[in-house]
């Protein structure tokens, strides 16, 4: 089941199939998740950790989130060994458009400087 991902401005930036894949808003496959880490579907590069429905950059700052999760900062992660890219998943059915969430109350220093699209382009 796909869950919406939002940026720090509470704008919908993508969808996550928890523990498996990340899709953009057009449901294009943009990243895969293995061992709690996101990897670019385009380059295979490590993007950062994924904890539940929270996506972090390589410095441990939040890039994308879902309101079902409490946002918590993490320490700078250790770069994991490279993972093999899985087969491209089938394009999922389009979920209903989610409501815009309320802005979470976290420190601005816990947000990544990277926009979601820049995070994916690493």
Topology:
Layout lengths: L2 E4 L5 E6 L3 E4 L4 E6 L2 E4 L5 E6 L2 E3 L5 E3 L51 H5 L2
Antiparallel strand pairs: 1-2, 2-3, 3-4, 4-5, 5-6, 6-7, 7-8
Summarize the structure.
The protein is built from 1 helix and 8 strands. The chain has one helix spanning 116-120, and strands at residues 3-6, 12-17, 21-24, 29-34, 37-40, 46-51, 54-56, 62-64. Strand 6 and strand 7 (54-56) form a beta hairpin.
Number of domains: 1
How many DSSP helices? 1
Question: What fraction of residues sit in β-strands?
Answer: 25-35%
Query: What strand line-up does the widest sheet have?
Result: 1-2-3-4-5-6-7-8
Helix content: under 10%
Largest sheet: 8 strands, antiparallel
Structural class: mainly beta
Alpha-carbon distance between the termini? 26 Å
The ordered string of helix (H) and strand (E) elements is EEEEEEEEH
The unreliable regions are: none
The backbone outline, from C-alpha atoms, is globular
Number of strands: 8
Radius of gyration: 13 Å
Mean pLDDT across every amino acid position: 96
